[in-house]
Design a protein that fits this description.
alpha/beta; nine-stranded mixed β-sheet; two-stranded antiparallel ribbon; about 30% helix; about 25% strand
Length: about 300
């Protein structure tokens, strides 16, 4: 079994063609702009929209662990006591409580993913495994999953931040068509400040994947305060050239805060409110920098 937070159908931004994206739970990075904070923990957790609570108190009586109480006519959950058992969900009249993380067996997940085979075949799409960070999930599970998808002819793409043991990548290399590989910044101190750890392992894994002949799309979340300058982009370009990284595509992904509303549901604080996306002119300029350096398949978004 493995914990999945979402299975997103008809996705067109997580690889080629029409895809189904599977979001695994758990990640070792803590990017301050993370769009899926509910995937950071490796355990099930309760999500609760307190702003919409009407104070009926039904969840208080339903919780077997005494984790829910009333304060100022609103339900409050003590997350140190909450086991994410889900007992409170059925009693919530507003349907504002849910558990992030559902267990799927490999066979159950493959059965679900095969429902969209027709769309994969017609569009050149397939399945994307994302997260969180799929490469830090149960690799016995992930390996068996990609083997089964490969066996039945479904293309597999891995969306990864690269912060995982390289032996995990080696296990699935024969069954993966494309890696969507994030590079945020070449400044290691900036990487530590915004991602919570240095980039040494990430870059080391990218170089090993490149030498192994993997098909790689370099994806750069583009944020003014983090890497939205000529200096930052030129540093990434210089690194890719120096290491002879064969990027089949480069995607510049403008910052957005569409995931910020999830934070209060998970009892977390969103720290990316002071971040901004470059404007369209700046984004076009960054595309030109890559094109002038010989990277011809460069896109904004994707």
């Amino acid at each position: 079994m493995s914990l999945i937070t979402d299975i997103q159908k008809y996705s067109i931004h997580d690889g080629d063609g029409i895809r189904t994206t599977v979001f695994f739970k758990g990640c070792r990075l803590r990017c301050v702009w993370c769009h899926n904070p509910e995937t950071q923990s490796y355990k099930k957790e309760l999500l609760f929209d307190q702003e919409k609570c009407v104070g009926c108190g039904a969840c208080v009586a339903a919780c077997p662990n005494g984790a829910v109480s009333m304060q100022d006519a609103k339900a409050v959950t003590d997350r140190s006591k909450c086991t994410a058992c889900g007992e409170c969900i059925d009693y919530c009249l507003q349907n504002i409580r849910e558990v992030a993380g559902r267990e799927y067996s490999v066979s159950e997940l493959v059965k679900e993913l095969r429902k969209d085979e027709m769309f994969y075949e017609e569009s050149g799409g397939g399945v994307t495994l994302s997260g969180g960070e799929v490469m830090t999930a149960d690799m016995d599970y992930v390996e068996e999953l990609v083997k089964q998808l490969h066996r039945i002819g479904i293309s597999v793409t891995i969306d990864t931040c690269g912060q995982a043991p390289y032996k995990n990548f080696e296990r699935i290399l024969p069954y993966v068509d494309t890696f969507l590989y994030d590079i945020k910044t070449m400044d290691n101190e900036v990487h530590k400040a915004y991602m919570g750890t240095g980039s040494e392992l990430i870059l080391e894994n990218l170089e090993k994947l490149n030498k192994a002949g993997a098909r790689i799309y370099i994806r750069i979340p583009t944020i003014k305060e983090v890497n939205g300058t000529d200096e930052s982009m030129n540093a990434i370009i210089a690194y890719l050239q120096e290491k002879n990284i064969h990027a089949a595509q480069v995607n510049l992904l403008p910052y957005h805060n569409t995931g910020s509303g999830k934070y209060q549901k998970a009892g977390m604080c969103y720290e990316g409110s002071n971040l901004h996306a470059p404007d369209q002119e700046e984004m076009n300029h960054f595309v030109e920098l890559f094109q002038q350096a010989g990277f011809h398949n460069v896109k904004i978004g994707g």
